[in-house]
Design goal:
Helices cover 36% and strands 7% of the residues. It is mostly helical. Among the domains are: 101 residues, Arc Repressor Mutant, subunit A, CATH 1.10.10; 99 residues, DNA Binding (I), subunit A. The strands form 4 sheets. Strands 2-4-3 form a 3-stranded antiparallel beta sheet. It has a two-stranded antiparallel ribbon with strand order 1-5. Helix 2 packs across helix 3 and helix 6 crosses helix 10. The longest helix is centred in the first third of the chain and has 19 residues. The chain is elongated, with a radius of gyration of 47 Å.
């Protein structure tokens, strides 16, 4: 994805001051805006096409116009925004490359960013480096912040040799300040800011442990290979079986037997100290149809008179037990004709006549 950012001095750059002088000499108050618009369009084109600040004459014609391309490119060269880098084969220009003016991501920087992202996702590379360096910068020994992406204390994994294949030997934990300082020092980086030996006792803070937890199996394997304790295993409470020491000195393991089935219920003999709650005197035994609905259906669950309780509050009368199934019971006073021998058909006819 292309990326372009105007610097803080875009509007106050000395190049635009030169453009103001040209506009004053010619009496053209539109010249500055024309040059700014043309320069911005050429920068955007270079960012989209990854041309590293280089644009062709054809691109200039496209954005400046066929009739204005020659004077506009000449004025941009005069004020210092363009440089003519044409070759016998092609006519082209180089845009001003200054971070505070306009900053573009160049093609080699894009490749480096892709490599950085890819390396930080490789567990086989990150796990041994984090186990070796912990949370300390290998150039200043400060604790880096793995969650910071802007300040100088944020982490930046440093490639000791960017052109070579990345291995744990040429890949170290670094803070952003030290990494940028080494870039600015150039050839003097190893002399001014050398690599510090790996710490004897690396610091595994919460951020490092969170990173390692993404590769738990690799962390365990690499810890065994390096002969160091697995930092992810620290703080875990191992389940231990309680033991007791008898008089003879032999360890006897105490085990707890778990019942295979739950207890059938409370003990038959209840303590006399348990509170006894009085019965509610307002509770009324159901009568009539409500009493019949509370009883099980005789066809599916026959009632055994001998198994019923004999208490006065729960006893059933013999007349209730001898009732016929629900389909032939008297549900209302009007059904009393059945008791006198009246047939169901005769009763229905009598209802229709009414």
């Amino acid at each position: 994805m292309s990326w372009i950012r105007k610097g803080d001095e875009w509007n106050s750059a000395p190049e635009w001051m030169n453009a103001q002088e040209l506009a004053a000499e010619r009496g053209d108050d539109r010249l500055l805006n024309e040059l700014k618009g043309a320069a911005e369009a050429l920068y955007t084109y270079s960012a989209q096409q990854w041309t590293d600040y280089v644009v062709t004459f054809g691109a200039a014609v496209t954005f400046c116009g066929l009739t204005r391309v020659e004077p506009v490119t000449a004025d941009l060269i005069t004020i210092g925004v363009l440089t003519d880098v044409s070759t016998p084969e092609q006519r082209k220009y180089k845009l001003l490359e200054r971070r505070n003016f306009v900053h573009l991501i160049k093609s080699d920087e894009k490749a480096k960013n892709n490599k950085r992202r890819s390396d930080r996702r490789r567990g086989s590379l990150m796990v041994p480096v984090l186990l070796r360096d912990g949370a300390q910068c290998r150039y200043c020994e400060d604790i880096v912040n793995f969650d910071d992406t802007r300040s100088g204390n944020g982490v930046e994994m440093d490639h000791r040799s960017f052109e070579e294949k990345t291995t744990p030997d040429n890949y170290v934990v670094s803070c952003r300040d030290c990494n940028q300082m080494r870039v600015d020092l150039g050839d003097r980086a190893e002399e001014e800011l050398p690599l510090i030996p790996a710490p004897d006792e690396p610091i595994y803070n919460e951020q490092v442990l969170r990173k390692l937890s993404g590769w738990r199996r690799l962390t365990d394997t690499e810890s065994r290979r390096l002969g160091i304790p697995n930092p992810l295993a620290r703080g875990k409470v191992e389940a231990q079986t309680p033991t007791r020491q008898p008089a003879g000195g032999t360890d006897i393991t105490t085990t707890t037997s778990h019942p295979s089935a739950p207890s059938p219920g409370p003990a038959e003999s209840q303590s006399a100290a348990d509170p006894q709650f009085p019965q509610d005197s307002r509770k009324v035994e159901p009568r009539g149809r409500a009493a019949m609905e509370t009883q099980p259906h005789p066809a599916t669950s026959p009632v055994n008179p001998e198994s019923l309780p004999t208490t006065s509050s729960q006893a059933l009368s013999d007349a209730h037990l001898e009732r016929a199934p629900w389909g032939h019971q008297e549900a209302h006073v009007r059904d009393s004709g059945l008791a006198n021998g009246e047939s169901t058909t005769a009763r229905r006819r009598r209802r229709r006549r009414r």
